[in-house]
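INFO  loader      accepted 1 record
INFO  loader      residues=153
INFO  predictor   begin
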Amino acid sequence: MARELGIEEFEFSRTHWAIKDADLSKALLRNLYSELPTPKVFQLSPEPANNRMVSAMMPFSAGFDGVYAALGAAAEAVGKKCKRADDIWNHDAIIQDVVSLICKSSVVICDLTGKNANVFYEAGIAHSLGKDVILNTQSADDVPFDLRQAPGR
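INFO  predictor   done
INFO  writer      dumping tokens
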């Protein structure tokens, strides 16, 4: 886990405090994958998340192009890069591209507009991997009660 946490080899022989740009709890969770059940439909990426990567989960339709463009601009404004799975074609199965993107992202934005089943599935994957998930919608009615957060939280 040293590389993932930004710990250099020389630091193992020193006693000092160092501030690192890493999330210890998420790194520990990722390194427990060998003890967790292994998915049968896709593989989890062993690569650590990129703090600059944001993924957008939404239907692949022209109706969401404006939303995706806005998310991309907002991400770029804060020094991040936003991608969605149809930007990449690394695997034969689209679900593997989706999961790989979720694994590599520090934040996952899920647009629940229209109650798209794929987006809900992807949100569940992101939640179970301990990702920071932002739920977005054009209608509050598209968010089921179990995904709504209490006011003030």
